[in-house]
Amino acid sequence: MIRNRISVWLKSSQFTHTFSPDSRGELTQTGPLSLHISTGAEAYQERKKMIASKLPLLMLILSGVSGLLRTHAIPRLEERNVALGAEAVQSSTGYGGLARYAVDGSLETNYHLKKCTHTAQQDNPWWRVDLNRTYNISRIVITNRGDCCVERISGAQIRVGQSLRNNGNSNKKVAVIETILSGHSQSYQVQNAVGSYVNIFLPGVEKILTLCEVQVFVALTDAHKASLLPEEAGLRNLAIKGRATQSSLNGSGMWAGIGVAGNAIDGNRNSALAKGSCTQTANESSPWWRVNLHLKYSISAVALTNRGDCCSDGLDGAEIRIGNSIENEGKDNPICDTVSSIPAGQTVYYNCSSLLEGSYVTVVLPREGTLSLCEVEVFGYSRIYAITE
Ligand SMILES: [Ca+2]
């Protein structure tokens, strides 16, 4: 586990502040402020009293220090429903009860008002929401139907995780619904529920699954940060001072030779190859592009800007890999994320599933094709603040 310590020395006393990265790599205070006295025993009590009286001031100083390190020191307790309006699917649909009705923000429980889901009668029906990024979920609230059939929800399992194996129904079981009163909402506190998928899975023969609302809550510190761009969180683009290279340079056609590797770290997101700010390899097997950051960093996010003048599906399936090795051109380094698709000319931010340490960021297209990138931005922390213990 990566932990970070900030120590402030005041005279002969040392204060330690402990931080840990969350799922997105943001640093959050996880340990209490601890106080270590290294003075002689006779002065101990007196100094302890004096220092204790200055603790509020020290907390202020420490929060200032952590601000400089772009950390968020004190988590707040508010929460946000990250399922609201997210993409939802279910095993089947019956009686017009669409999957998205469980994330429409309505707690209406009369089925006939089109605010609740409904599967067909089937074995093992399920419903799933895609939160679109990984969250550490604190609480899930399920709202049961109110106009009939109160017992149908009983036995449903709440599952959270990252996998779509078995449609996500094999992810970690974080709660089981015993009963929910007719038209009521039941809250389930969950622990170690980390993932981007939440499934409601109802095992059994000839079952019907109806959900009037599923609310998935995360602490506001996480949710708030999810809406922040790395720049807004104060992270620098580390790539801009790096050195870029790629598997080959396109040498044919009208723009032969124009797409050099450095164009992806020139600080310009212009998405037309002709403007001289995008890269382009030859058409080959597993083309790659790589930036050497010169130092080891703890990297939390990478932003890719796609071509806007053509071939916008060219990055589909590309892998972002981060590590310290250039063996196999860095293509075997740990994966930060995989591109599903990027709209033409757009920039998409990829949050690594965990804070990854490395001095090389490689983008590889694991198939035959041309790799063309208009900008690659790498966001992270200087390694000095991330000590692996
Ligand atoms: Ca560029």
TrEMBL record:
InterPro entries: BG_Antigen-Binding_Lectin, FTP1, Galactose-bd-like_sf. Residues 79-225, 235-385 form the Fucolectin tachylectin-4 pentraxin-1 domain. Signal peptide: none annotated. One of its GO terms (molecular function) is metal ion binding. Keywords: Calcium, Disulfide bond, Lectin, Metal-binding. GO terms for biological process: regulation of cellular defense response; regulation of complement activation, lectin pathway. Pfam families: F5_F8_type_C_2 (PF22633). Belongs to the fucolectin family. Homotrimer. Acts as a defensive agent. Recognizes blood group fucosylated oligosaccharides including A, B, H and Lewis B-type antigens. Does not recognize Lewis A antigen and has low affinity for monovalent haptens. This is Fucolectin tachylectin-4 pentraxin-1 domain-containing protein.
